[in-house]
Design a protein that fits this description.
By secondary structure, this protein is an alpha+beta fold. 25% of the residues lie in helices and 38% in strands. The chain folds into four domains: 108 residues, Immunoglobulin-like (Sandwich), CATH 2.60.40; 136 residues; 110 residues, Immunoglobulin-like, CATH 2.60.40.740; 112 residues, Four Helix Bundle (Hemerythrin (Met), subunit A) (Up-down Bundle). Helix 4 packs antiparallel against helix 5, helix 6 packs antiparallel against helix 7 and helix 7 packs antiparallel against helix 8.
């Protein structure tokens, strides 16, 4: 007899243990105790539920020391099948009333399930002095007030001027109630703040705590603020209307708790932000209000070029802080260089931490003369709220080397020794864009009287009189042809209804009604008979008299028969398409034969 290798035997044994473990987990017995509350007033009631997932016998409750049993035990059973798996629950419930203040324990209860004895855990309960309104007398509004809270969480309550402050509005909901919808009622205006809302992409519930108790919370609104004024600044309340489902003591037919719905208006309340002024000590003279952590630079696209060419000088500040709320320093450009107004560029994103990114001014510079022109170093100062210090950053000096072009000293004459003025030199091309020859031509006066247009408008109406007479005579001839007009109208109707039948393909009733009208109007046009005279025998006789072939007549009559049968019998789309094609072909053949 062949034996399995050792490693396969170990693998099979492990698999057997795993399957056995799964089966044991599925058959695991649970016996738990649940309290309606862990802290209550002397005049309130406590509900205690002992639940098990298997049916058992010999249930033995605890003594309930410190409490009086008002009701119980009441028994409820729940059983269901989901995807072939049975779910079972059996609960013994008690309603208790405390007899004294203090800290008590709900002792262990026991139950015998499948021959084994199971015991519940011990639960602690604190009984306080009598409350104003006991829980069993509270309305749905009272329960919602205790279990629903809107909170404004502020990142900093004592920031510096122009320092970022984030406010997150959270709605805390106790697991005892359910929230189905909310509507904002009053949004704060954030006076004396620069503000920007941060979009909340999805409302998702998260686990949290409120005053030491477990809650679920949802983030409803997020905003970033930059205070623009020092002192005590107020953030107005954020208020919403909420639809709340509150559990009652009633149960439905299946034992589920019945909920009562109410609307509650909750507010986050106003918050006070104490904004500190920026220190005046050691404040740089060139400080423009920048607060944060920044990098500063002055760069040029090139440092060597010819006269009349252009270069770009960029003054940029990047980092984290109030990037949109201060002015960038301006470079000192030599007068020999022509400078255009800067183009401002902003690449800033805002999140709960504040603004981050880069702002810059882009200057276009055009030199006119040959030479070397230095752009001096410039300073940028900002206040760092973390270190509470002013920081000044200097850019490097940049020298612009103009290689080719007129020299500024080529003009005859000299300037005063201490004069900063420079003679303006023309390069011969500065004003080349100005057009000196306008290309204007003298305007000739065109007289209307006696011109060709004058005689055309004078004699034109007279020439139209014979044309009008001919047109009227032709219309009278057409109107006098009664039979011909009837034939034309019938032909138009036949084409109209046949095209309508085509549009109704797929709709049996409308299609065959339109097809029948098209066939009738075609016969009316060709045979000159009225609808009241229609009968299949007469139609066949008239068509034979007109030398129409028998197979064409039979096809035409078959179409009329299908139109009648369609009122009572089902017809497929394929049959409708065949009848439409047959009608087109039959009318075409009858036209040739007639």
């Amino acid at each position: 007899m062949c034996s399995l290798p050792k490693r396969y035997a170990i693998l099979l044994f492990s698999l057997f243990l795993a399957v056995s473990g799964i089966a044991q987990d599925e058959d695991a017995v649970t016996f738990e105790v649940q309290l309606s509350k862990s802290k209550l007033g002397l005049n309130e009631r406590l509900r205690v539920d002992f639940s098990m997932n298997k049916d058992g016998d010999n249930f033995n409750p605890p003594d309930f020391n410190g409490f009086k049993v008002l009701m119980g035990p009441s028994q409820s059973i729940s059983s269901s099948w989901i995807n072939g798996v049975r779910s079972y629950s059996k609960t013994y419930s008690y309603t208790l009333s405390p007899t004294a203040q203090g800290k008590f324990q709900i002792g262990q209860a026991s139950i015998v399930i499948a021959g084994n004895t199971y015991k519940s855990l011990v639960k602690d309960v604190e009984v306080t002095a009598a409350v104003d309104k006991p829980s069993d007398q509270m309305t749905a509004d009272d329960v919602a007030d205790e279990n629903l809270h809107l909170v404004a969480e502020v990142s900093k309550t004592n920031p510096y001027l122009n320092e970022a402050v984030s406010v997150v509005y959270k709605l805390y909901v106790s697991p005892q109630i359910r929230v189905s919808n909310f509507v904002p009622v009053d949004n704060p205006k954030y006076n004396n703040f620069w503000s920007q809302d941060i979009k909340v992409s999805a409302l998702s519930a998260q686990n949290g705590t409120y005053k030491g108790k477990p809650y679920l919370y949802v983030v409803l609104k997020r905003v970033v603020l930059y205070p623009q004024k020092s002192g005590a600044l107020e953030i107005e309340p954020y208020t919403i209307d909420v639809s709340v489902d509150v559990p009652t003591n009633k149960r439905d037919f299946f034992g589920g708790r019945v909920y009562a719905q109410t609307n509650k208006r909750v507010s986050a309340g106003k918050r006070i932000i104490n904004v500190k002024s920026l220190p005046l000590a050691n404040q740089p003279a060139n400080f423009s209000g920048a607060v944060g952590e920044f990098d500063f630079s002055l760069t040029t696209s090139k440092t060597s070029l010819n006269a009349s060419e252009s270069l770009q000088a960029v003054v940029a500040v990047s980092g984290k802080g109030n990037l949109k709320l201060f002015k960038l320093p301006e470079p000192e450009i030599p007068s020999a260089l022509e400078v255009y107004d800067p183009e401002f560029t902003e690449n800033v994103r805002t999140n709960l931490a504040g603004m981050q990114g880069k702002v810059s001014n882009d200057y276009t510079i055009v030199p006119s003369f040959k030479g070397k022109y230095p752009i001096p170093s410039i300073d940028f100062s900002y206040f760092n709220p973390k270190t509470e210090r002013y920081i000044t950053v200097n850019s490097d000096e940049i020298v612009i080397n103009v290689l080719e072009g007129p020299s500024s000293g080529a003009v005859a004459g000299t300037t005063a020794p201490n004069s900063n003025k420079q003679e303006v030199m023309t390069t011969g091309s500065q004003f080349s864009f100005i057009k000196l020859d306008p290309g204007l031509a003298p305007k000739t006066i065109d007289h209307f009287f006696g011109s060709t247009r004058f005689y055309f408008w004078l004699l034109g109406p007279l020439l139209c009189i014979p044309l009008a007479i001919l047109f009227r005579k032709k219309r009278a001839e057409i109107a006098s042809d009664v039979v011909g007009n009837k034939v034309k109208r019938a032909n138009r109707l036949a084409k109209k209804y046949l095209s309508k039948a085509r549009k109704e393909l797929g709709n049996k009733d409308l299609f065959y009604v339109a097809l029948e009208k098209a066939l009738h109007n075609y016969l009316k046009a060709k045979l000159k008979i009225e609808t009241s005279e229609f009968s299949k025998d007469k139609i066949a006789a008239l068509l034979r008299d007109r030398s129409v072939r028998d197979e064409t007549i039979e096809g035409f009559l078959k179409l009329l028969q299908n139109c009648e049968a369609a009122r009572y019998s089902p017809f497929s789309e394929v049959q409708m398409q065949q009848d439409y094609d047959t009608a087109s072909e039959t009318i075409s053949q009858m036209d040739k034969q007639l």
